[in-house]
Amino acid sequence: MKYLHPKESLSQDDIALGMRMMLYDAAFVTFMGVLTTGAFLIGFALSLGASNVVVGVIAAAGPLAQILQLPSIVLIERYRKRKALALYAAAVSRATWFVIALVPWLVPREYWIPSFVALLLVHFATGNLANCAWNSWVRDLIPMPVFGTFFAKRMAIATFIGAVLSVAGAVMVDAWKQHYAAPLGAYTIVFVVAAFSAVISLFFIARMPEPEMPAQSGTTIRQILKEPLRDAKFRAVLIFLGWWNFAVNFAAPFFAVYMFRKLEMSMVWVIGLSVLSQLVNVVFFRVWGRLADRYSNKSVLTVSGPLFIVTFLMWPFATMPDPHFFTIPLLIAIHVLAGISTAGVTLCTSNLAFKCAPYGKATAYLAVNALISGVMATVAPIIAGFIGDYTQHFELQISLRGKDTVSGATRFDVPTVDLQGLDYVFLLAAVFGAIAIHRLLAVREEGEVEEAVVRQELMLQMRRMARQVSTVAGMRQVINFPFGTLKQWRQRRRDAE
User: Which position has the higher pLDDT, 7 or 307?
Assistant: First the structure.
């Protein structure tokens, strides 16, 4: 088929068409991205009887499949039709959800978990082959000067649509529980809808033009590994992203588990908090995208990365040891801060690897990055699952206690820290995240600036947004406070001293 063949060169119209089709694709593939991941995936797994270890294995299935990126590179380099490979592999990957949706109805109960995990591996394996071809193709299609801004727009569209879908899916699952007790039927409907929409998105991908691949000499796995690993600049990126993926995947798969099991929250509450985070994402994708294009991805990560780590530390305080008056406000604060920070982290961790990969060699470089990050992301949730189950009955409590020294009576006893099970997982994830941020300092990216510059620019952007929505005169006065003047005054005092 002619439309599957790459072109020698792309015109501006071709590039514009490709970017437009990518936006349409984002709108439909979001159905699968939202309705088959996060709380829906974890909820389905828990309904099948999954433990923390099984949840960890399920979370590891996707990264584990990234190992197939290496033979995928050889296939891409020899076949040299990235568009065709991406379409065929994506079709198989997305169709798998039709089968997963029917597991509770066609498979004996004792085989639910093994069948589910096996099908997930098929889904992720073929999906990673598609992503490997797609990443290389898109790297050569989208002009670098607008790369950050364009993908910020694409992510914003996907996030907005995802927020609406999440709420609709959550309402249906909870309503189904009320009428039929078991939610498996609801998950079946959700997964079928997701699969249909993901298949529709393939028609838009098919319309995207593909430029011819530049000549590449080495096509063996050894040759593929050698060059990216010998590149000192890209090696620093690999180390940072490896540690970062380990930290994130150590904690993130268990956020929903924590809310479902320990906080006993409904699907609507879990999804509602997720949607809140996604809506904040929509706003800040554009902010971080502009900052990334203006300064660098590394500069943005030095600010957004630590903010995300802070959210790991906040989770254990949601229960002390039980849900309390401040649990919901704290969860809201966690998800708002996560929304702000993950917008920058998601955008810039992806773009950093894209930007640091040499033109024409993106296939090998990005696949090696996917392999290393995938290995770290595979190991992390499995280890975390074992730690979560092992420490489930090991409680560490630190309290503030007031005691009358005369009568011996306790006047007050306020728990300040109460760690049990997944609480240890979140704290360890924060430690690993700090290691990742430290490794980020060794990364060298063109255009990077000091962290303070990005922080100042971010605060300026937030003040501008606040001006647009504020109708209270007093609030405007706060927003318009002359921080720059105050900073200059403090600097003059330091100089005088």
Answer: 307
pLDDT of residue 68: 67
pLDDT at 456: 53
Helix (H) or strand (E) holding 66: none
pLDDT band at 494; cut points 50, 70, 90: low
Give me the domain span that covers residue 456: 451-497
User: pTM of the full predicted structure?
Assistant: 0.71
201 located within any domain: yes
Got the DSSP string for 426-472?
Answer: HHHHHHHHHHHHHHHTT---TT---HHHHHHHHHHHHHHHHHHH---
DSSP code at position 417:
E
CATH number at residue 221: 1.20.1250.20
End-to-end CA distance of the chain: 75
Reference 301, options 88, 451, 491; nearest CA is 451
At 291 the pLDDT is 79
Q: Rounded to whole angstroms, how far apart are CA atoms 159 and 27?
A: 9
Task: Count up the domains in the chain and report the number.
Answer: 2
User: Burial code of 71-89, b = ≥16 C-beta within 10 A, e = fewer?
Assistant: ebbbbbbeeebbbbbbbbb
pLDDT of residue 15: 82
